[in-house]
Amino acid sequence: MNHLQVPDDSQAAGAARFYDRPGCCQDERVNDGFLTGRLLVASPTLADTNFDRSVILLVDHDESGALGVIINRPSTIDVGSILPEWHVYSTIPPVVFHGGPVGRDSALALAALTSKNEHDESAEPEGFRRVFGALGLIDLDVEPERMAAEISTLRVFAGYAGWEPDQLEQEIKEGAWFVVDSTRSDPFQPDPTELWAQVLRRQGGDLALVATFPEDPTLN
Question: Phi and psi for 19 in degrees, rounded to 5?
């Protein structure tokens, strides 16, 4: 991995390029399938400040564990300050996002293919590894111009969230996470700080009510 010089800004200092790492209710049980491509929405009672009101997109989930990125925590670090060649392709806001507490010196880039390539798995550009649907991980060592015409949106994350085998499943059973479907636009929202409530509201029912919980649950 290539290590980059990054301005100090809390957890995102020092980014390296990262590429090669291969429900609807609180008591929902994980089924026999895996959850790659779905969202984990933190319960308002989750007592871990790393994930307070976080929305995580799972980019990898199998029998060896799970990996995802928090998609609603923008930092104040401009992508251009650490990856100037990718700045022009970064979706608004063009800042590095805090992807999670693991590997905070690693940068992971998520992008969406253009609509013409979305359903053609043979049309993946060099440096793009499809995760699900139109979304995939970008090799930040590839020259951006070589794939600029192939992607429509791009987000850069410092760090990620990781789980050992069966760890995530247990956390879901304990009610730490709501598991819901993602949309193509979720990782690229222009106002990501509102995403936690937005995702819950669109579920309807009890989860829509959860979106109204105060940030301090003891005040509810």
Answer: -150, -35
How far, in Å, CA of 135 to CA of 60, rounded? 12
User: Quick check: 55 and 199 in contact, CB under 8 A?
Assistant: yes
Residue 188 CB burial class (10 angstroms; 0-12, 13-18, ≥19): buried
In order along its 220 residues, the chain shows pLDDT tens digits of 333 334 444 333 333 333 443 333 333 334 446 999 999 999 998 989 999 999 999 999 999 999 999 999 999 999 999 999 999 999 999 999 999 999 998 899 999 998 766 666 666 788 999 988 889 999 999 999 988 888 999 999 999 999 999 999 999 999 999 999 999 999 999 999 999 999 999 999 999 999 998 876 565 5
CB atoms within 10 A of CB 213: 16
pTM of the model: 0.83
Q: Could you tell me which of 186, 40, 61 has the C-alpha nearest to residue 112? A: 186
Instruction: Verify cis geometry, omega within 30 degrees of 0, for the bond prior to 192.
Output: no
CA neighbours within 13 Å on the CB side: how many for 64? 4
Query: C-alpha dihedral over 197, 173, 169, 98, to 10 degrees?
Result: 30
